[in-house]
Amino acid sequence: MESKRPSSFFQNPNVRGLIRVLAGVSTIAVVMAAAIAWRVAHRPEAASFLHVLGWQMLIWLPWVGFYYTVRYLVRRLGTYQDATLVGLILHVLAALLIAAAHLAWYWAVSSNVSPFLDAPGTRYGAFAFFFVFWFLIDLLLYWAILVRPEPGQEAEEELANSATTDRYAVRKGDSQHLVRTADIRWIEAQGYYAALHTDGGSFLLRRSLTRLEEELDSETFIRVHRSTIVNVDYVNGLTKNDSGSSLIMLADGTRRGVSRNGQRKLRAVMPAST
Prior knowledge:
50% helix
């Protein structure tokens, strides 16, 4: 019985999330240390790799706390796909504040433990281009967390959606909703998610369009483009834009691009629309 405890411990979503964060921070530190060591390898101020690595580990350690801060903001404000304009602005401000806080940490750490304290051309024990790279990496890390699902969220949604496909459990900010497939007008690929557009609004589901195409009734839901699935009950017909490209017209006024294969599928189920 005792041998099973480590397994259940490491299956805890919070534990797995922390392991991911620590692994990510360590990976960044190793890559940065290797890049810096290579960059100064032939210069008089070259330092040992272990010294550079220890310095980088200290520099990137705050991202363990920043990670959970960003996760909290994502739960409160939404992802980049479902956040309001105000939420997106707050995300941008938060990213800049985190980068600024991290920059202050850089200075504090580098001023004391940097292997390049006495090197010419450095300030606070670092070359100027280091700070530029670190700042950009901070912004990229914030973005990466913003678009990735929270650890455990994907598993929860999989469990909620595994039993039936007549409805889907979806998230919008902090709230969880059940969306009936009959209420879905059309579906759009959005990064790692699929956006389910309904009369009651749009909701994000952690699903690929390919998987949704397999799950949904093929006589009702037609994939008309690599990024779009439509409910034929809400299709008004086909038209063309000024450049001659085919568009599908939906009941809510939405117009989406449609491929030739998509046109053939539509004609097969609703010949009157053409």
